[in-house]
Write a structure and sequence with these properties.
2 domains, alpha+beta, binds zinc ion, 3 helices
Length: about 150
């Protein structure tokens, strides 16, 4: 059973290339990706399979309609993705602050976030200290810059 064109377009909107996804149910005769595993969506192919590279290293695609996944959404899920992003930062030359989007010349010499193992810009580092001290309201992880597009 393959997805029709309308379904494929809906899936492509739901799972844009580069978004972070969480596995709900995915297995084939050889591999099982445990529910809760996260990965990066690599797009939706012409039969409606959601292609992914899972954090465990597997690149098993989700077959429509039997396999299920969803975009990272909860604070807890985003935290897992932030830790994943933090690992990418270790080998990256430069990129953006995942919290506010400010350009960073280097991920070294900046602040480590209080919420995940990820580097943020100095300003966000100060802001987070104020949040932790209860001096201002916490910016939800769902509103972080990187949650729109998971790029460095
Ligand atoms: Zn920032």
């Amino acid at each position: 059973m393959f997805a029709d064109q309308e379904t494929i377009e809906r899936l492509r909107k739901e799972f844009p290339k580069g978004c972070r996804i969480v596995c709900d149910k995915l297995d084939d005769p050889y591999t099982k990706i445990p529910a809760g595993t996260q990965g990066v969506c690599r797009g939706v192919d012409d039969v409606g399979s959601v292609m992914a590279i899972w954090d465990c290293g597997s690149s098993l695609s989700l077959a429509y309609p039997v396999d299920k996944a969803h975009r990272v959404a909860s604070e807890e899920e985003i935290k897992v993705s932030l830790n994943w992003l933090g690992k990418l930062q270790e080998t990256a030359e430069k990129g953006h602050c995942p919290r506010c989007g400010a350009e960073l010349e280097s991920f070294r010499r900046h602040a480590l976030s209080r919420y995940a193992n990820v580097t943020v810009c100095d300003l966000c580092g100060v802001q987070e200290s104020l949040e932790v001290a209860g001096l201002c309201e916490k910016k939800p992880l769902t509103e972080w810059y990187c949650t729109k597009e998971w790029k460095l």
